[in-house]
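Marked as duplicate of an earlier ticket. Keeping the data here for the record.
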Amino acid sequence: MAPPSPYLAGAPIQLQPLSFTWLDGHAIELAALRLDQVDPELSGNKWFKLLHHLEAAAAAGAEGLISLGGPHSNHLHALAAAGRRFGLRTVGLLRGHPQDTPTVQDLLDCGMALHWLGYGGYRERYQPEFWAPWQARYPGFHCVPEGGGGLLGALGCAELVAELQQPLEAFGWGDYHGCWLAAGTGTTLAGLVLGEAGRHPVYGALAGPGEHAVAATVATLLQQAGRDDTGYRLFDASRRGFGRFDPELVRFMRDAEREGGMPLEPVYTAKALMALREQVRAGFFAPGSRLVFVHTGGLQGLRGANLDAVLQAEPGPGAAETGREKRPAASRRQG
């Protein structure tokens, strides 16, 4: 067996039982894999996505790491913290124009050099020549795809399946019947599919609209790893768009936090849990099913979400009769 990576999180991962009223009468057991508790700075799936990128950077003798994301990016937040912790310079290529968000302030505090690309410039990230000028400007830096993606990111997330076994035994479950998680780029989902190797299905709740981009990413990653494009299923959880919040979602999130005793955020985990509720009510899961809800973290992004304003924007009773139109849902890209 290979020795443990020096970059792998040392904190034990907890499996927390979840009890919600919407589970009543369905004979389904639910537990949360609390990746949000792994590390105060590199929490959630971001640590595992970065694991093999950090190892690759060390093997290459890289001076630093360079990646991209938005002004609320969980990925850049973790990357900057990892750079500070492990003595690597970090560079962030950001979507849009300069903003002063709590996340951006943390990036600067960690010593990350920031370059704002505008929106048009950021859209160029998929072009083959995108990285060339940045590699010339920062020679020897290890380039990390958006969100910590790519095969290295997926392989890091594959280790989550092995990490699940110890808390599973302590929890008293001999086995489980599937993992449910939010899917942004699809990297973590692909990693779980790789780690499961067909033993248990993986269910992805799409944080953004449109199945095809995530499905294509997962298929590509599985192909690169030499695996068949099977073992998972995708469900829409986007609720009108990535990073968009509506009053119903916010109320559900706050009720779930009180009832389940677990913090959530509206971009990924709250939407994923809400979509799970829909499938439980629809009878998708057989009675007796034991499901693992993978809490992918991202709680730092809450600082940029004004959820009270979302609730205040909701029209009161009689709004339709008075001709008032419902305001659009609030939006914040978390990249």
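See parent ticket for discussion. DSSP finds eleven helices and twelve strands in the chain.
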